[in-house]
Amino acid sequence: MSEDETLVRIEVRDSILWIVLNRPAKANALTIGMMETMAEAIRDAGAQEGVRAVVLCAPGARIFCAGVDVKEQSPDGDAARQRERRSIALARLQDAVIDSAKPVVVAVEGAAIGAGAMLAWLADACVAATAASFSLPEIDIGIPTFSGASIVEAVAGRSAAMDLVLTGRRMPAADASARGLVRELAESGVLQDRAGELAASLGEKGALAYAQVKRWMNRGVKRALDEARKEHERHRAAIRN
Fold this sequence. Notes:
This protein is of the alpha/beta class. Helices cover 50% and strands 17% of the residues. It has helices at residues 3-7, 32-45, 79-99, 115-122, 146-156, 158-167, 173-178, 191-203, 207-217, 219-240, and strands spanning 8-13, 16-21, 53-57, 63-65, 104-108, 111-113, 125-129, 133-135, 171-172, 184-186. A six-stranded mixed β-sheet has the order 1-2-3-5-7-10, with helices on both faces. The termini are far apart. The relative contact order is 0.14. The model has no long low-confidence stretch (mean pLDDT 94).
């Protein structure tokens, strides 16, 4: 078993593919390998007849996901290339969630930060513990989050995007639910069960119709993400120059 396979546990239970983040010592921050493993698992689920839906979770974690691990060392010592690799891996993971023909549900227990929050909002549904929270704190360290802003704006509107992105504040789950960023709230003790039930319910819909409607409804966020990624690339080019 590779290191990435220990940091991300993948198993099928009752026709649901469970992707479990398992890096608590590093606040479940996503390495490039973890993101690649998750993206591959979601894509593979689309071809598995025995899988009806996908759930991404981190049971019992104080921090669901702290975002991308920006401290991960480059294997070749090229910091610029490492930033590019991180961006590519995250984009592919986001696309896997959006493009999955099968339902993807994210169960957030604890804090969902940066890319962790983005994955929750890009999923077909987010179920959050009542004590969970969401944040895009990049502005507090001087980094623009064009993708994060685009995702929040597409999902919940400009007001929510301005609130989260320009303040970097931690938004409680109840507030996120009121803004339309969370589908359901649940107590921590039943969160995983509720996420599994919701995933199973969505997975029972007509597969072709579900995939077609999901693709149609995600067309706006896909356009917004494409524009944001181009802006990120211009920003990185400006920094290099």
